[in-house]
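Input sequence (243 aa), recorded before submission:
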Amino acid sequence: MTDMTNELLIILSFLITYGGVVLSYRLFGKKGLLAFNILATILANIEVLILVDAFGLEMTLGNVLFASTFLITDIMSENHSRKDASRAVVISTICSIFFIILSQLWLLYTPSANDWASPSIRAIFSSTPRIVCASLGVYLISQLTDVWLYHKWWDWCRKRFGDSRRGLWIRNNGSTMISQLLNTLLYTTLAFWGTYPIGTLVSICASTYLIYVVTSLLDTPFVYWCRSIHDRHLDGSTEKTEE
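Predicted structure, token format:
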């Protein structure tokens, strides 16, 4: 049981995170997805500092949270519009910039003699600027690529099946797997080059993309679920705006 602790925690994290996306959408619609996207983007950049062994691989955490942002933009694209999905990416990026600024201001304060938290805060957030700065550019590139690819796959599905509703799993997985490969290669290089040995970087890159492939395949039912929520509860119309 002890040997499987990390694996069980990752599975639990997946269920909580993806379940949270669905619940946020059911309760608050697009606004819920936007709020969750901001939260996941910021938290993933903190959690990524933790390196663990799980499923026979050495990996950083934060992968499940970050993968959920691709789920969110796919839901936005599927149920609403390309413009909504792109706007969610831009807003999350802006919020991450404010997070960098504020977290660095924390480090400038002179702690009280009774302070006990500052050493831990400094240990975490002194590494944050490089992680988050690398993430910002890569996040924008990979996420906007994901949105663009989603709609390219959608055009293909519409021509192939003659029905804009069919082929959801194709556009969902086709766009996410390609954009996450781009994200993995760029982010691992920019964020961790010189921090870990080359062998560790390769291991992180391979394990990260493997997790993204698995989460991409597993997130497809959640996209269908959210499309059903949209049709039944949020907006009776299935019409979407291509913007």
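Checked by second reader. The radius of gyration is 19 Å.
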